[in-house]
Design a protein that fits this description.
Elements lengths: L2 H38 L4 H4 L14 H9 L2 H32 L5 H11 L8 H10 L6 H5 L6 H12 L3 H9 L4 H12 L1 H17 L2 H6 L8 H6 L9 H34 L3
Length: 282
């Protein structure tokens, strides 16, 4: 065995160690804000505003959580957020799956041009659509309702693109077999194609849940009276004009993030499989 051959495994191991150290450092940087949020939630207001800041609370307390639940109508706003999320996720999965299947498998005039317009929408800031969406919701007399929070989010150019990529990755032999059995386009979509893109549906559900749960600007526009405002609006109200109770704000943000963490843990396998199998293929 030559010296070059003997040094190769050692160099490979050093490369693996360097890669793992780099990934560990990157993971620590991403976890650090969440850890600081968790620690701040158990501090007092004075301790959180102290300069230089202290890392660990001298006397951990749950007062911030108590203040949060006393200051924010948590359960009513949580119900609004959950209902809007469920309606938005179901609607976007249905619309994106149907449109993605049509663009991927059906042949009709102007298909490529229309899909190009969908992709072009990804480059347009979503704020430009706010006026048109508000006028549409107002004309439908849906202001200050849960459907008003969810309906605009049901239509997503990214969701259509993601589902189109997923359907294009499926071999045409499955459709041909279904056609030989007498299945039409709708039955082929429902019984053959849709079950094969479940990972991508899971990935889209996670992303849609994230956008819906964190949406702040649109609820402020369509719920002016506040009867159907989601939890994000309640959290924003904790920031004062002249000062902010950071422990209470961090406690509220921690409580509000728990549903998203649960959703991701339940759908994490489908999320990664869906992104890997559809989002990166042409």
């Amino acid at each position: 065995m030559t010296d070059r051959t003997a040094r190769a495994p050692k160099a490979a191991r050093r490369g693996e160690w360097a890669l793992h150290l780099a990934l560990t450092a990157a993971a620590a940087l991403m976890v650090a804000p969440f850890a600081w949020q968790l620690i701040t939630a158990f501090k007092t207001t004075g301790e959180a505003s102290q300069s230089p800041p202290t890392f660990w609370p001298a006397d951990p307390t749950f007062n911030a959580f108590t203040t949060f639940f006393d200051s924010v109508p948590f359960w009513s706003q949580f119900t609004v957020s959950a209902a809007a999320l469920a309606l938005r996720v179901v609607g976007q999965l249905a619309v994106s799956a149907l449109a993605g299947y049509a663009f991927a498998r059906l042949r009709f005039p102007g298909r490529n041009v229309l899909f190009g317009l969908f992709i072009a929408m990804l480059m347009v800031p979503s704020q430009l659509f706010l006026i048109g969406q508000f006028e549409l919701v107002r004309d439908l007399k849906l202001l200050d309702t849960i459907p008003a929070l969810a309906i605009p989010g049901m239509f997503s150019a990214f969701g259509v693109f993601l589902m189109r990529q997923a359907f294009m990755s499926i071999p045409a032999a499955y459709e041909e077999a279904a056609r030989l059995d007498g299945a039409g386009p709708l039955r082929t979509f429902r019984s053959v194609m849709l079950p094969m893109v479940k990972p991508t549906l899971g990935a889209l559900a996670v992303l849609t849940s994230l956008y819906s749960w964190n949406d702040l600007l649109w609820p402020l526009i369509v719920s002016p009276r506040g009867d159907h405002r989601p939890l994000t609006v309640g959290l924003a109200g904790l920031q004062g004009q002249y000062g902010t109770d950071y422990p209470t704000l961090m406690a509220g943000a921690l409580v509000a993030s728990l549903p998203l963490i649960v959703i991701f843990l339940v759908l994490q396998r489908q999320f990664f499989n869906g992104i890997a199998s559809s989002g990166l293929k042409g």
